[in-house]
## 1
Amino acid sequence: VQAKGANLYVTLEPCSTHARTPPCTDRIVASGVREVIYGAGDVDRRNAGGAGRILSRKKIRVVKGILRKECEKLNEDYRHWTTKKEPWVILKLAMTMDGYLAIPGRRWITGSKARAEVQKLRAGCDAILVGAETVRQDNPRLTVRKAFRQSAECRNLDGVQPWRVVVTRSGKLPKGANLFRDRHQDRTLVYRKKKWSEVLRDLYQRGVCRLLVEGGLETAKSLKQSKKIHELILHLSPWCGRGKGPRWRHVGYETWGQARFRPMGKDGELHFLP
Ligand SMILES: NC(=O)c1ccc[n+]([C@@H]2O[C@H](COP(=O)([O-])OP(=O)(O)OC[C@H]3O[C@@H](n4cnc5c(N)ncnc54)[C@H](OP(=O)(O)O)[C@@H]3O)[C@@H](O)[C@H]2O)c1
């Protein structure tokens, strides 16, 4: 693609400082772009207002604030991470129509389409968290499979797996669990007897902007009580009347700003946004 003389449209003010990547403004100047149109200003003080100054000096026209509110919404996770110094938390659970999170004798509640969506969701997050009981009962891997590591949503294009996070009070975790024995074992973190604010602050410091919580119910309930959930994704399977263990209704109800529904094979997804 030839960028020389083009107009560049971006949702967020281009960065102008060195962080994990070099400044976007250097690249814009080098590419010969003629005009930059951006929606929301950067809430990171190191970058705020910088792009306009730097680009104007290089005779690149800058237009800011176009669809500002809509763009702020698109960058809500980044804005939260930057200003609150905690990750944006997405709780995702699969459940039967009557609210059970497990079915006796079945490994999964949902079908392959819904599970592929979970892979995309994982690829779009920097860490995946579960409660200790899920590790003890299910021995999950919590990895992103290769096909999804190259997807457009993927945040770690260099193939690094998201952090795998376990919370526990007792510290009783099986040493032979996949999370502690597989080749990504250096990507597993265990937080014992920590408050959510401590867990989230530590994850923030490790660069975790988007945290996916995959259950179980007790962990979800505890996070909800601490008011730390920002997005809720429920994968609903058509199974009914065969579940086991605690039910979603034990988490309690609350009102969310918006809900989107989409079918996924035989299952459906309800996505609640703030
Ligand atoms: N359908 C789904 O989406 C889904 C997802 C995940 C799991 N599951 C199912 O859910 C069941 C397990 O769920 P569960 O509700 O029993 O347990 P869980 O939430 O997976 O784990 C509960 C344990 O996590 C630790 N924990 C929870 N909150 C904590 C906090 N605030 N601070 C520190 N530690 C905390 C404690 O560990 P200690 O006991 O070690 O102190 C607690 O006993 C399994 O049957 C699993 O198959 C379903």
## 2
Amino acid sequence: MTVRVGVIGVGMIGQDHIRRLTTVLSGAAVVGVSDIDRARAEATANCIEARVYATAQDVIEDSNVDAILIASWGATHEQHLLPCIAAGKPVFCEKPLSDTQDSCLRILDAELAFGRRLIQLGFMRRYDPAYRALKDAIRSGAIGAPIFVHCAHRNATAPAHFTNDMVITDSAVHEIDIVRWLLDDEIAAVSVLAPARKTSATVNPLFVILEMASGALVDVELSINGVYGYDIRGEVVGEIGTAALAESNPIVVKQTGAFSGRISADWRERFLRAYDIELQEWLDSVANGTTTGPSTWDGYAATATAEAALQSLHTGTRAAIPLRNRPALYQSQKADPSARILQEKPR
Ligand SMILES: NC(=O)c1ccc[n+]([C@@H]2O[C@H](COP(=O)([O-])OP(=O)(O)OC[C@H]3O[C@@H](n4cnc5c(N)ncnc54)[C@H](O)[C@@H]3O)[C@@H](O)[C@H]2O)c1
């Protein structure tokens, strides 16, 4: 089956996903696009012989469109997701689910009322082969119950429009999602610290501490002006061992008494394969009439945590994250053996 996809928002990542759908993956045809920047929509559509729709609503309502890909700004996601749910159309929505917790809950309630999942959210790290191997190592029980997770998120340079709040909402949100997924656990509280020592960075480095519901602790260093490249690090410390992401370069060059390897320039290079797998799995699930991957619940939990982290950043205090009870529609599909070990062991 060829899934006929309509794309809403054809900026940076929208165009990258269109390239992926049309030249890398199998089983998709991008049949139409819409963007509030009409000229951009037309230029994009011309390259792939797709139709330009006047509004996002027109894309969603067209019976010749099987599934929707949303890559517009986060604050617009709700206005597109609610009509998609009303029309019963499967959606791939770039992160965030929405920019506020209240908005996320309206989307969650609409999907719950519809009665089955339609939304796959764009947290692509869950499809990265290295992160998947890390999760397998935890699930195998080889390192025992997770106690700590150490993460680092370093970019070479921050884009000109980047703000200190975006370090939380656009950067840390990836770690927020990935540790929930790795540990199959919710985040109970967050504290954000800024180093007292001033740096020349245009965007402050930050240190985020996440307290998981199971009791595990997570630290995330965010250095968005890290200068030397894009470097994503993650190490899980368990009761009897550790598992960590390896260096991401595929080869090591040894020469004249030193060894070296490439550091990714940015997130597009580091997670290239993850984005491909993410969208291929979306296409496959749409063709099968199912929805998998990061859910509306995951999007709500991530935005709720980001909101609490912003509160902590601005007040200097620890912020609790009171989530709603998790509905059955979003219960995790697989039991996590490492979580069981933590509960069963005397502490
Ligand atoms: N998963 C990731 O790693 C990742 C990476 C980058 C961006 N993103 C997310 O993707 C989304 C887009 O980011 P971007 O960097 O491509 O932004 P962008 O500004 O480059 O592109 C967004 C596009 O959406 C269009 N748009 C805005 N409102 C619209 C509306 N109501 N209807 C139709 N089109 C509309 C804009 O005109 C623009 O062309 C954001 O939610 C962002 O957080 C995710």
